[in-house]
Amino acid sequence: MKRTPLLFLNVIIIATCGLIYELLAATVSSYVLGDSVTQFSLIIGVYLSAMGVGSYLSRFIDKHVAEKFIDIELAVAVIGGLSAPLLFLTFAYVSYFGIVLYTMVFIIGTLVGLEIPLLMRILKDELDFKELVSRVLALDYVGALVASLLFPIFLVPKLGLNRTSLLFGMLNAGVGLWATWLLDPLIPNRKITILRVKGFVVLVLLAIVLIKADSLTTLAEDGLFTDNIVYAKSSPYQRIVVTKGKTGHALFLNGNLQFNSFDEYRYHEALVHPAFAAYDGKPKRVLVLGGGDGLALREILKYKSVETVDLVDLDPMMTGLSKAFPALGELNQHAFDDPRVSVTNGDAFVWLDNNEQPPYDIAIIDFPDPNNFALGKLYSTRFYNLLKQKLSPDAAVVIQCTSPLIARRSYWSIIKTLEATGFSVKPFQTTVPSFGVWGYALAKMQPFETPKLASGVDLKFLNENSFTSMFEFPTDMTLPADEIEINRLDNQALVRYYESEWRRFE
Questions:
Q1: Mean pLDDT across the chain, nearest whole number?
Q2: Residue 74 CB: number of other CB atoms within 10 A?
Q3: ∠ Cα 424 429 431 (to 5°)
Q4: What's the whole-model pTM score?
Q5: What is the pLDDT of residues 453-473, one digit of tens each?
Q6: In this structure, are residues 203 and 173 in contact, taking their beta carbons and an 8 Å threshold?
Q7: Which domains does the chain have, with CATH numbers?
Q8: What is Dmax (Cα atoms) for the chain?
Q9: 3-state SS, residue 396
Q10: Better-predicted residue by pLDDT, 413 or 130
Q11: What is the mean pLDDT of residues 219-234?
């Protein structure tokens, strides 16, 4: 029968849409909760178990199988299509986000689990059992592959989470509507018109919401951020939001505060100037990994001896933010326009492994906190061994290392990991009002004394006394070294520490 290949195409679409909704839920939760490792694992488990529940429940559908299949397809279209906007709005305005998240994932998984068995029963009279099962399962996995490729490469970078959700909801609704013609002989005439009207209404509803997707995103973000949003864009890697309030501008990446213009100078002076103080001589070549806002560059360029600064940051939208949002350009004193600065957009781990450069005298490492495995690898022994190969023998390195007060195990795990790769390390910390107590590591490849602050540099925060005090730790910020694991690629101990410690303050 001619409809058989078209129904097999439905299998691919069903599998693709189902996995897209799962990925959307996991991504939304990681955006708003910043706990991607746990959330992804739980969402995958809930979704797969729900599919099993759906498959089991399909045995209780004895009559009107084709009609029920279309109804389920339209239900998936509505719930899956609206899933991302609803999750963002739920997180912004209610306190039980987790309940809504897992309930929605379970419902979608159950409905998707119902669809495939019903479709197999519709096709059972047209193919023998062996052929039917092999084709359906094969095409189911093809759909999963399509979704896994489309989601990170095209859908999220080009459409964003809300539009992706709504677009695939419309695709489900279109499949349901199309099925009323494909399965026409199996559905009573009086039901066909009702199903088509339902399919059309769902399609129009999702199309209207798709048109209003930007308004929904704005509504959700207005609930998430206290101050007025003055800039918001989605890159292939993250959601970039800038707000403006009484204390100035604040930058958020995936909902996580990166700096406030009121006190960022404290963070960036502590990040940059200890490395220059520890270097014996006049540094000429500087490497910056991360730091796409250009604020560390501003501090580096205060040193006249610096001839070359290579900055490597994953996101071109982030390194271009100074031009897209002029207030940031003013804050970093147009550091990216300095002829000494060269920008590379790419993964710092890959860049260190593949690029041959003359050795650097100073390295400033300003990555986001290690809240997932992709970031955790940037704090691993493998990463620090790659970094050593790019440094001159007397080079000095400073790394931001999260809060030693809130996340003591995380902080000292980074210190211990640096020491395990052969660095001599001087831990230090300071207070940044927007963040609280914040920790760093000053490292060199030979033993060294705690340095003295260099003179002749224009600073707003650091002086001789405050510089020296940064290297002193109170008791509540220290831990015995034997209680801490080294962060390696094969254990990602740091990510585990980070999740458990920061989760207490959510």
A1: 89
A2: 24
A3: 165
A4: 0.80
A5: 988 899 999 999 999 999 999
A6: yes
A7: 3-214 (1.20.1250), 221-259 (2.30.140.10), 263-503 (3.40.50.150)
A8: 88
A9: strand
A10: 413
A11: 83
